[in-house]
Amino acid sequence: MKAINLEEKSSKFSDHWSPKAVAMLNDYHVRLVKMQGSFVWHKHDDTDELFLVTKGQLTIEMRDEAVHLTEGCLFVVPKGVEHKPSASEECWALVIEPAETVNTGDAGGDMTIDEIEWV
Amino acid sequence: MKAINLEEKSSKFSDHWSPKAVAMLNDYHVRLVKMQGSFVWHKHDDTDELFLVTKGQLTIEMRDEAVHLTEGCLFVVPKGVEHKPSASEECWALVIEPAETVNTGDAGGDMTIDEIEWV
């Protein structure tokens, strides 16, 4: 058993919008993701989704408002709420959600990652 | 809905070994805790427990080994594994676990927090 260094794990991949699992917490995945540009509008009907920004800045648009996260900020997108993450410059985040959660939620499409890789 | 700045939230309390809730993720609590000195040996029979160090350093002793976490490191203590967190200097961490989780697990005693406060 060993500690997981988030920066060291983040250095092992460079693709955007492709979450990598680093740990399990019961039946939840602890994932790292690098983001740049805009993701798709989507929602997760069965779960909340936690974002914790570890580098850079992230905007999470929702239909009625937007939340802006700087380094060291977290936000939990409530279950069923449509959202669209975006980052004008590269942003790194920790994402925690049930392991079966699909990154694009109900939206599907080209940005869907069918199988979450581990780093 | 707004982002939660972990450093700003951490500035709102100073007591050690008394986790404060800052968010819910489904039925999980996202908690902040400040630690200094040694906690009690205990285990959580029904859940894993996630620690993410945001400031300082934390050692999590288990019966057969110990894990040392520096800032930006996370560790998930597996369900049922006896552990004792300790920090020679003040350490700040994020802890994620089901909302009903008692900080001292099966051990009870003076360090038990019966009701988790929110900050």
Number of helices of chain A: 1
Strand content of chain A: over 45%
Number of separate structural domains of chain A: 1
The CATH class of chain A turns out to be: Mainly Beta
Summarize the structure.
By secondary structure, the first copy, chain A, is mainly β. Helix content of chain A is 4%, strand content 49%.
Provide key terms for this protein.
homodimer; about 120 residues; mainly beta; Jelly Rolls; 1 helix
Structure characterization notes:
- Two copies of one chain form a homodimer.
- By secondary structure, chain A is mainly beta.
- The first copy, chain A, has a single domain (about 15-119), classed as Sandwich (Jelly Rolls), CATH 2.60.120.
- Helices cover about 5% and strands about 50% of the residues of chain A.
- Chain A is built from one helix and nine strands; from the N terminus they run βαββββββββ.
- In chain A, strands 2, 3, 4, 5, 6, 7, 8 and 9 form an eight-stranded mixed sheet that branches.
- In chain A, strand 2 (about 20-25) and strand 3 form a beta hairpin.
- The first copy, chain A, starts with a strand and ends with a strand.
- The model of chain A has no long low-confidence stretch (mean pLDDT about 95).
- The interface of A and B includes residues 69, 70, 76, 94 and 96 of A.
